């Protein structure tokens, strides 16, 4: 396991690819773990050798709370916005765009397929930390920056003394920025990305795959990463010009591979993501007949 002073980077299976994520352990008296999506055995080793007493989740997505329930004794906190979201399954369905895309019937179907373990991971979260407030764990100072966009509540833990930021879903993968839930926002995603670049940090730890970047590397990657948003705008605009309907555009596979769109949740996020780009292009989908309507 890699270490940066008191911080231990705990890898998840497959280089922390979704449905797992990289965790960060603060080796301090308070025994703090940030996100619980890393390898189960590695986390249990840490628990045995160093202890885990407090888990801080950056946001409510399943890949970042994956192993919350492995540590029943630990307190678990999340950001204040999403502490409200997780108070009911319906609010989570709403935040994920399930209600928007499929109405009550879709929410009902989604509820029947929820893994028991995931619900347990959510239910174990019992409190919140504050945004933009410096916490001291032994001598380790950390501030949970509010960096909305990926989700409305996403926080990015920033260790100013160490010059380290944990940037979770700013993962710089070729998939590109993910803001596809109803609680995601493209403009905020871009703004928060810029804010992360403005930090006095030289180590950026991503939550998935690529790993750790210097500031210069993170800056270069960010440019390419955010450009994917413009490419999506452009692609969708071309289809609109060709006269495709919303339904037709959502069958192409602009975010997700076409052959994965038979998975209901991917199809949901594909649709909800396309709606956001249509909005940027000044268009909306008519509720009456599904036609694309100019809102400019
Ligand atoms: Zn996420």
Automatic annotation (TrEMBL):
Give start and end of each Metallo-beta-lactamase domain. 20-208
EC code(s) of this entry: 3.-.-.-
Question: Keywords assigned by UniProt?
Answer: Hydrolase
**Per its UniProt record, what CDD domains does this chain match?**
metallo-hydrolase-like_MBL-fold (cd06262)
Q: What InterPro entries has UniProt attached to this entry?
A: Metallo-B-lactamas, NDM-1-like, RibonucZ/Hydroxyglut_hydro
Q: Which GO terms describe its molecular function?
A: hydrolase activity
Protein name (record) = MBL fold metallo-hydrolase
């Amino acid at each position: 396991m890699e270490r940066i002073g008191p911080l231990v980077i705990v890898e998840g299976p497959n280089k922390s690819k979704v449905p797992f994520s990289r965790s960060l352990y603060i080796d301090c008296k308070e025994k703090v773990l940030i996100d619980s999506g890393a390898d189960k055995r590695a986390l249990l080793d840490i628990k045995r050798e160093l202890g885990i007493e407090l888990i801080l989740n950056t946001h409510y997505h399943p890949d970042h709370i994956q192993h919350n329930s492995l540590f029943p004794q630990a307190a678990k906190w999340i950001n204040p916005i999403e502490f409200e979201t997780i108070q009911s399954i319906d609010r989570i369905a709403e935040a994920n765009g399930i209600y928007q895309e499929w109405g009550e019937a879709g929410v009902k179907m989604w509820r029947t397929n929820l893994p028991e373990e995931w619900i347990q991971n959510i239910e174990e979260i019992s409190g919140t930390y504050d945004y933009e407030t410096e916490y001291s764990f032994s001598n380790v100072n950390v501030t949970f920056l509010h960096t909305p966009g990926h989700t409305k509540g996403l926080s990015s833990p920033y260790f100013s003394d160490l010059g380290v930021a944990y940037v979770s879903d700013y993962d710089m993968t070729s998939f590109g920025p993910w803001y596809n839930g109803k609680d995601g926002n493209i403009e905020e995603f871009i703004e928060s990305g810029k804010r992360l670049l403005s930090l006095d940090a030289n180590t950026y730890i991503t939550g998935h795959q690529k790993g750790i970047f210097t500031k210069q590397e993170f800056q270069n990657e960010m440019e390419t990463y955010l450009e994917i948003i413009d490419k999506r705008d452009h692609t969708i605009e071309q289809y609109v010009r060709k006269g495709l309907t919303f339904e037709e555009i959502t069958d192409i596979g602009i975010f997700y591979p076409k052959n994965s769109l038979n998975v209901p949740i991917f199809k949901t996020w594909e649709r909800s993501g396309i709606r956001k780009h249509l909005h940027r292009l000044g268009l909306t989908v008519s509720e009456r007949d599904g036609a694309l309507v100019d809102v400019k």
